Structures are given as C-alpha cells and as structure tokens.
Amino acid sequence: MITLAIPTGTLLDDSLGLLRRAGVVDLNRAELGRKLLVEKAGLRCVLVRPADVAAYVNHGAADLGIAGKDQLWEAPGGHYELVDLGFGACSMIVAVPEASPLAAPETWPPTLRLATKYPLATQRFMQRLGQVVDLVHLHGSIELAPLLGLVHGIVDLTQTGRTLRENKLRVVAMVGRSSARLIANQASLKTRSETVQGLVTRLRQSVDA
Amino acid sequence: MRRWGYRYVVTPSLERVDLLALGLDDEERRRLFKLVDQDGSVLGLVSERTVPVARLVAGKLRGAPLPLRLCYAGPVLSNHPEGFSRQRETQQVGAELIGASGPLADSEVIALAVQALAAAGLRRYQVDVGHSGFFMGLLEGLKLPETAKAAVKAQLVARDFVGLEAILNETPLRREEHQLLLRFPALRGGPEILNAAAGLVRNRRSDAALSELRRVHELLALHGLEAQVSLDLGAIRDFDYYTGITFEGYGPDLGRPLAQGGRYDTLLARFGRPAPATGFVIHLDRVSEALQRAGIQPDPVFLEAAIAWSQGGLEIALRLGQALRGFGLRTVVSTEPRALATARSWATGLGARGYCHVNEGGQIAVGLDRGWHRLSLAEAVAQLAERSAR
C-alpha cells in the first residue's frame, strides 16, 4: 500500500482538491483532521505538519508527499521532487522596515542581521551574494523582530504582501519562488515503481489539464 | 567475500582530508569529522573506505599484480543528518575489484553484493543496475552551453525535476529533447527497456552504455540472479565519480539503499597507478534495520559444540575439543566438572548446536534427538561435525 503525506494548513484544501480531481482519492477534510491517518481507495493518507512532510518522505515512512518548496529548501536530500502542483504560490523575500536606509544588496552592512523561519534557504541565498549574515531562528511572528530592533530585516514568505504592509515592511530582495510540489521517496520510486509512477502520472495530468 | 577470493584489508580510520576528498562530493566533504594534526594539517575520520583502499593499491600494494580483489569491514564516521538517531558512526562492509574492466568484472562485483545481502539473511531485496555513460552521452548530444549542462546535472543530482524543467524551459532545446531529459529517469525494468532507450537516444556513448548493460544483465542471469536484478537507466549518482556501470540494492520497506556500488575508472590514476576499478559498499546498519522490519532474527547460533565432563574425564574432553576445533567447529570445553544430568541445560544455555559429555571412565556420550548415545571419539567427532553442518 502506498502512503501519501498531506500537509495541514494552507495547502490542505488545494491538496485534497487535486487528489479528488485526479480521481486518486476523495477525502473529507474533517475526517482526515480527526483521524490523522485514513485508508481509502488503496491509499494510506496521513496528515502531518507542513514542515514534517519531507522528513516522512526522506525516511521512507511515506512514499509520496505534498510539500511547499519553501519547506523542501529546509530539508534537502533523500527525495525526488517530481511535479510542480501549481497551488500555494508565494515568494520568499528579504524585507526591512519602511524607515530603514537599507535597499538593494549593495547597501547592506558587512554583517546583515536577519530573523527567519528558513535558516538553510537564507544561508544559501546570502552565500551566493557573498553576504555575511547573522541569523536569528524564530518560529512565528517574524515581522515583529525588526520592529523591536532585534534584526535589520527578515526572510519570510509572502503571498500578497499584505502582512508586510501592515507591519510597515518593504521588500528589498527576492530569495525564491515557492509553490506546492509532489515529492517521492527515492527507494519507493524503485521498489514500488509501478504504483508510485501511476499515481504520479495521474496527478501530473490533472495539474497539466 | 573471502570465498570469492577477496582479500581482507585494513585501512586507517584517520586520513588527510585532501586525500579523503578525492572520493567525496562537496556536501560529504563538509560532513567529515576533522581534527588538526601537530603540524597543522587537517585530518579526517574516514566516512567511506574506497579511497583508502585505492591508496593502498597504489601504495603498499604497488608491487602486487592486478587485478586485485580486496574487501574491508569497519566503522565509518560522518556528520550526516540522515537516520533517526543522527547516528554518527555506522558500519560498512565493502569489496573492490581493481585492475579489471568490462562486463565480466562488473557482473562479478554485482553478484558478490547480491550474495552478501542474501548471506545477511535478507529474503526480499532487489538490485537496480544503471550506467552513468547513458546520461553523459545524452547530455553530450545536446546543443547546450557548458553552464546549462552543469545546471541540468546539478538539478538531476538534487533529484529536483521541477527545477530541471524550469531550466529546460529557458534553453533552445526541442520539445522531444525536453521530454527525453524529464522522462529518462523512469526508464526502469527488464532488458526490454534497453531497446526502448536505444530508440530514444542516438549517440555513441549512450549506445556503448546500453550494450554494456545488456551484457552485464546476461552475465547476471548466468550467475542465477535474473530475478533479483532490474535495469535502471534513470539511476542518478555522482556523475563525476562513477564512470560506467552503477548499482544500488534496496530492501522492501526501507527508504534508503542497502548497498551501493559502481565503476570508478579514474580514481586510481590520482594516486599514480592508473587502473580500472569497480566495487560496492553495504550499509550494515540499514541491513540490520531491514532485517528487523522483516521480522528476521539473525542466525543466533554461535557455538557448534559444547563439551561437559565429570571428574576424570577432562583429558578426553580436551582431546575431543582439539579434534572438533581441528575440523573448524566453534567448540567450548567446560571449565568445571559437570554431571551428565545437567550437561544438556548447560549446553543449550550456551546456545550450542551440539553437545556431549565425558564421564569418569573417559566414555563419551553425545546428546542426540532421543537421549544420549555412547560413541567412540572418532564417532563423536563425526556426529557433532555432521550436526553443525545441518
């Protein structure tokens, strides 16, 4: 039996919609939320936190998973990234307070202090720029950190830019674009290739349609 | 492995980092545990043993004629975040066949790896055989600038097909070439996929890779391993290190490969003794995890014979012990006198497969399925040897 890891949170409804449209499985949000593990249509679906999907797939506890690219940046290796599912689009950006003198990378101080939930992606991006950074790893309400003078700016996700505007933050650089991806365990693709590939193909066709 | 004529070698656990780096990619290099030597040079704890074995072949074994068949076993250290307990030290067993090229050598090493997995007690496993030349030929055949080719390789090594597609969309490649690059990783199965692949790709390097794969598959069938082996043209490995046939062994329910290997014909030249080479490593910790998941107990029999004796029977007991050891049986002779009545529970407590008792008069009784049987020394040896062979 194939195990599929589905993320809680903002990607959940779109994920269930895709699985239904592709004719893979018709899951009810309430049912999945209550039981966390549902077996249906020859598929075992587990509901896990978005940041944990890659861990389940990398270790082979799930054969397939749906995860935001932003989470994959933080959990490299061990999985195949197969399909861009299109939904959950957002950008990872560097933002500073509106009043800050900082703008494009040339104006940044030698050591830029940043708060983020995404230390790996931030490090990689800043390394490419040759920028030294001092990272403060926070888990929520990142927007607060620069307002209280803890850091120069933040690296975070934004969809519409509303939260940034409300907190008087301004975008100065783009780290990358994220959206939901279908990922697969490396061994599952080999040892259960027919079933796994079959599922992947159905999801891909549904996305392309 | 010794039965296949592979000599056991021991290599140091500590090596210079620049030397270890020859067999590692950037990420693996970062994950080495490092120490600083008295003269300031940086040393690393070995995280794999192919490079140390290669150095041995080009150094101490320089005079030994090729091909050389060598095997090793031991702990390796790596600051790798995989695994649940973030275990830094793991156990590896491996073999290298150095100085032999061609499908015969490749298939010998694959067959040995399969036998080793079977000997570990695994009942269900499969080995996927690929060839790095197939993809390299495919890439060479494309009209792309070098930077774009490097980017394509990097995305493939990262197994990021979404990123690969994004890169391809910015290249002037034709749609068929696009599809080929995105879909070739799914080319997996029996020998029939070789024909399918030959229809897709027309270049000398890929063709050569396909015919080598065909031959290796035939040879593995001669080894009797057809059922366990699949062909996998989408095998994605370190393309700068492997130069030919590559393979990976998988268990049924484990997310990571149990065994990995392949041909690396350029490594030995870096130590000044150019030679073709192929080999593999088995990750013992993963094998043990696979065995546990499959509910397979490793064979607990350690002792083949246990000899108890009563006062006065010691001399015969010691002679019997020597004789059994002479036949290669793992034998324990009790360190204190023991009555016949307690001999059986003592021996089974030790986990011995066979047992016997020597009484005051030097008479030997061998414990068999239905009670004790009085036998001569020669008969006793024959009985116990036969029991252990069962």
Automatic annotation (TrEMBL), chain A:
Main location: cytoplasm
Protein's pathway: Amino-acid biosynthesis; L-histidine biosynthesis; L-histidine from 5-phospho-alpha-D-ribose 1-diphosphate: step 1/9
Domain ATP phosphoribosyltransferase catalytic residue range list: 49-204
Classification via Pfam families: HisG
Keywords, sorted A to Z: Amino-acid biosynthesis, ATP-binding, Cytoplasm, Glycosyltransferase, Histidine biosynthesis, Nucleotide-binding, Transferase
A GO cellular component entry from the record: cytoplasm
EC code(s) of this entry: 2.4.2.17
Signal sequence, renumbered to the chain: none
MF GO annotations: ATP binding; ATP phosphoribosyltransferase activity
Subunit structure, interactors included: Heteromultimer composed of HisG and HisZ subunits.
Biological role stated in the UniProt entry: Catalyzes the condensation of ATP and 5-phosphoribose 1-diphosphate to form N'-(5'-phosphoribosyl)-ATP (PR-ATP). Has a crucial role in the pathway because the rate of histidine biosynthesis seems to be controlled primarily by regulation of HisG enzymatic activity.
Name of the protein this chain belongs to: ATP phosphoribosyltransferase
Organism per entry: Candidatus Dormiibacter inghamiae
